[in-house]
Design a protein that fits this description.
With about 150 residues, this protein is α+β, with helices and mostly antiparallel strands. The protein has one domain. Helices cover about 40% and strands about 25% of the residues. Strands 1-4-3-2 form a four-stranded mixed sheet. The longest helix is centred in the middle third of the chain and has 18 residues. The radius of gyration is 22 Å and the shape is elongated.
Length: about 150
């Protein structure tokens, strides 16, 4: 279905996030494409694809990391953020839209690295233990889930 949508809609500028999405996008392509890798900084680069149809450019695609990739590999947050900023800002620049050149880069730098702080599970377990010690039942334990 998504391949047919890409044939129907013009979508001259496209951002594809994640390896799986990139693989499926490239498998469904029916036209000649030129792949460009642009070095951004150090060992960080971003991939672009220019899709040609009938001697003209049909689409420019930027390939970026999945937006939540840094949750699973926090040491690479700076690289992921740089690619997201470069890909999205390039497309916005092409469209003449305002953009923030370091939005993801600055946001990624503010967060503490690592998954342990992503959810307050330790605090929840301590709270449940405290209520158990006080012979109270936690409201969250009384919930009846609809599924």
């Amino acid at each position: 279905m998504s391949h047919r949508l890409l044939e129907i809609l013009p979508l001259p500028f496209l951002v594809v996030g994640g390896r799986c999405a990139k693989k499926h996008y490239q498998e469904g392509r029916k036209h000649l494409a030129k792949v460009l890798n642009v070095k951004l900084s150090g060992n960080t680069s971003i991939g672009f694809e220019i899709l040609f149809e009938d001697q003209s450019v049909r689409r420019i695609t930027a390939f970026v990391d999945h937006p939540v990739a840094s949750m699973f590999n926090p040491n690479a947050t700076a690289q992921y953020s740089l690619r997201l900023d470069a890909g999205l800002n390039f497309m916005m620049w092409l469209l003449g839209l305002p953009h923030d050149e370091r939005s993801f880069t600055e946001t990624g730098a503010k967060f503490q690295k690592g998954i342990p702080d992503s959810a307050p599970l330790k605090e929840v377990h301590e709270y449940v233990k405290m209520e158990t010690n006080l012979n109270r039942t936690s409201q969250c334990l009384n919930m009846i889930l609809p599924f």
